[in-house]
Amino acid sequence: MKYGMLKxxxxxxxxxxxxxxxxxxxxxKGNESASNGNTKASDENGAxxxxxxxxxxxxxxxxxxxxxxxxxxxxxxxxxxxTIRIIGINGDNGTKTVWDSKDLGANWEKAFxxxxxxxxxxxxxxxxxxLSFDGQSVWVYNQIGDGGITHVLYLVDQEGNGSVIPFxxxxxxxxxxxxxxxxxxxxxxxxxxxxxxxxxxxMTGKIFQISxxxxxxxxxxxxxxxxxxxxIYVVGNKILIATSSEILIYDGETGEQQQTxxxxxxxxxxxxRFDAVDTIDAGEGMYYLTSxxxxxxxxxxxxxxxxxxxxMNSLGAPAFYPIALTMLDEENLLVAANDINSSSxxxxxxxxxxxxxxxxxxxxxxxxxxxxxxxxEMRQSISHFQKEHTxxxxxxxxxxxxxxxxxxxxxxxxxxxxxxxxxxxxxxILDGMPVETYIEKGILKDLSSVFADSGNYFENILNAYxxxxxxxxxxxxxxxxPAAQGGSTYYTPGEDFDTFTSKxxxxxxxxxxxxxxxxxxSCGASWQKEDKTLDVEKITEFLTKLKNAxxxxxxxxxDDNVTKSMSEGEIVNELxxxxxxxxxxxxxxxxxKVNVGLLGRLDYGMMNAVNxxxxxxxxxxxxxxxxNVFVPSMILGISSKAAQPELAEEMVAYLFSKEAQKVSxxxxxxxxxxxxxxxxxxHEYETNMDGLVGVAGGANPDERLDYALIPTPEExxxxxxxxxxxxxxxxxxxxxxxxxxxxxxxxxxxxxxxPEEATDAIMQKVNIYLAE
Amino acid sequence: MHRKRKGTRISENCGKFKKWQGFLWILPSFFGALVFxxxxxxxxxxxxxxxxxxxxxxxxxxxxxxxDNTAFxxxxxxxxxxxxxxxxxxxxxxxxxxxVLYQSKYGGMIKSAFLMPMALPxxxxxxxxxxLFHSQGLLNNWLEHLGLLGKDWMNTPSAFWILVVxxxxxxxxxxxxxxxxxxxxISENIYEAARVDGxxxxxxxxxxxxxxxxxxxxxxxxxxxxxSFKVFREAYLVAGDYPHESIYMMQHLFNNWFxxxxxxxxxxxxxxxxxxxxxxxxxxxxxxxxxxE
Lengths: 772, 293
Description:
The structure holds two protein chains of two kinds. Chain A is of the alpha+beta class. Chain A contains 21 helices and 34 strands. In chain A, the strands form eight sheets. In chain A, strands 24, 25, 26, 27, 28, 29, 30, 31 and 34 form a nine-stranded mixed sheet that branches. In chain A, strands 1-23-22-21 form a four-stranded antiparallel sheet, with no helix packed on it. A four-stranded antiparallel sheet of chain A has the order 2-3-4-5. The termini of chain A are far apart. By secondary structure, chain B is mainly alpha-helical. Chain B has a single domain, classed as MetI-like fold (Orthogonal Bundle). Chain B has helices at 2-47, 61-68, 70-103, 107-114, 116-119, 122-133, 138-145, 158-184, 188-196, 201-212, 214-228, 232-239, 250-259, 263-292. The longest helix of chain B has 46 residues, at 2-47. The interface between A and B is medium-sized, with 29 and 31 residues.
């Protein structure tokens, strides 16, 4: 009996434990977010203890006004006497110049211009220069002569007096050169090691350590048999060489390789390779910049410390390329960078980061932004927005990355779950999502109040998703134009789809899937009937006519295209594949009769050069079953369940400001008219007094297209502007229908099935989808 | 007397406790079922009368919408068709295999081999499917060698039969094990008595084996039915959200509705489906109960 009582008691306890266990498993404690890495030293403040008191301390970013418009900055250093020195090129007149600041960057005065030998642009050019900590500088002057290019190293002392360093770069071994352009070797990087030696990297990745006094080679670091040396950095007396896979450390005096710093290797593997490096303790430790932010590493240590989180400022912006990092002290630093989207004219920016002990480590407010695909314009805009709103942290999540392999369907299901659980994003970039369905279901908030004070927008684009009651629940911040380019034999701007596709083989040698996708944009919008079902006859007509224009399929051309993509050594993203510019060289060199695709940026020089290669070449709208189509891009919507709806509206308003609209990362034309003009007018070439030309290489080695880098003529600006103003029909944006059409349509172009069979297969899939 | 009264009260209390202690023991399980099944189900029923996102009361509108929805009707038709074809074939085939294996001395070993498909991850099965049935897959390659014309198997009505075969292949071993367990429960004495009375193998099977397997039949039918829903995984992995219309199942529809925030339609369809399932299971149970009596 006693034993039975014990058994019952044990059973009851066990059951109670199970019930309690299951309940604790549902608690929400696991959702607390991890602390951010933006504090100088989070333990200094130690305020995170109970979670109520927020940790304080963060580096804040501010622009430093440069004294002149720099066309380029080669180097920036804090000299031994505390002066900040910059060497660069004056963007207005091309002078190579040296500027000093005695008050940590607040005011600047010209120290001197580089000696006249370096200024001679008639016989050569400077592409690299570096500073030492005692104020000397070395300039690589590439002298162009009859025998090719020879490198002359000019050492310029603290007062601006120049002398030639007697160093002759050895000819590169095993490199093949063109007879038209005899170059024996090239200097690819240069930097000081102390004040009496230089490190020079050549085009084969070999590094020479030479004396500035007599040019004698002290050491040679050869990596050509193993891996390329990508960058050289000097930290105190250590030479850091970043190869394709690791960071090698050498003793600058002996040239001996030192022990691998495991923690440094690991941190670089996690946070990316350095962009710039500096030290303030004679090389005991180093500060370095990556796209992830600013990091500090103590040699021999076991951890890397993140001091600035790049996602909260310009450091993480996609078009931000640091040139030099100068640590003023532990709490202040300067970063010179190439940032085409900065407010600085010429795209060279100088930023100062200052430690603010009173600012909370992580901003008080969090705005969650979501997109399926990574959006570079958004990333760029976020860094600007955060600079102006230091109390806001914009948490941007792109669901589909190359690493995670998530499908669109899985990503959308996760998004649905998060939104319905009240943990979803505030602002959604709706590209690739079922926009109409979201609007219909009430997922998106009306944005019309954001645009109440009407700006100077292309209203035809802005109102793409406006409903009959005037509500705007989704709004495209950018757009692309389905366009075509060709000679008059094959293409006349303004011609209709029937006329264009009646020319048999006019689209030959194109990739079937990509061709269908391009014409989907210019035709798909005409297929949807009023009851939202698709017009079977129009789809059959589309496929039949396109097959005629495509002609016979030759699968060897597809192999050529693959070879071309592989040789470019890059992953071709979806937008790039369908862009007009992707086929311009094929058109120029006769592989394509006509080039079609989406136009999202105007590279006037290139387009003009291609037109000149053709007989009466011109561009215009892509012929389609419906006229005047545009493709909405960067479509913005605010979740009706947003936690920060006002902040999200503020962000949308910012994204439509001139400043944000001018950000150009090839994601489409701006909707704001002034920004539109600014991104197509080629103003960045106004200072191109040297007549620099762009060079594009085709798939074959002998295919070379030179084009002028000049501002876009007014006539060309007006043509494109009036083309944009004529656009009235947003393209049908539905990935389910598009995928079905592309899959089956490609089979038609390849001759595997008839247009009727393809239409049946498309309708079978699409009918279920539409019925849902 | 006093003592006797006290004793009676104690025994009365004990009786009451004994009467309720059964409920106490099932309380944890009931609590789990309540939290994880009954309350969510009640919420689904509630949502079937509300709007998708705004939670506005809409009455029976959602039910009316789904009953007019051709995608829903197609999914129901395919699911019913799949179930009606697969389950009888699976149960009979598994029974035949089980009887043969039960009589074989290597039955135990072969039984384990039949269970192998269950151990294979759905992703691996899907990959093999793709390899076999793609328009440029192995099957078409073999057919080409034989001088026959191949086709895009997964985009034709053949997809349905591929799904049927896949389901049977995967679940056959499991059902065989269940039938064999049922066969093991039948006493050998009954067979011996029947054989003494002159009954042959067929008569023994009809009059002894089959009636004694009735309890197993109920369990196997319900489990096979529930397992039939899992075939969606392979279909989804091979053909995605929108497969050929012949294999567009209820789960495809729910999956796509969820993605598009159609919680209203999902809830209404789930309520209808659960009622049908409950009805079928009750019918089956009733048939089983009458069989046992």
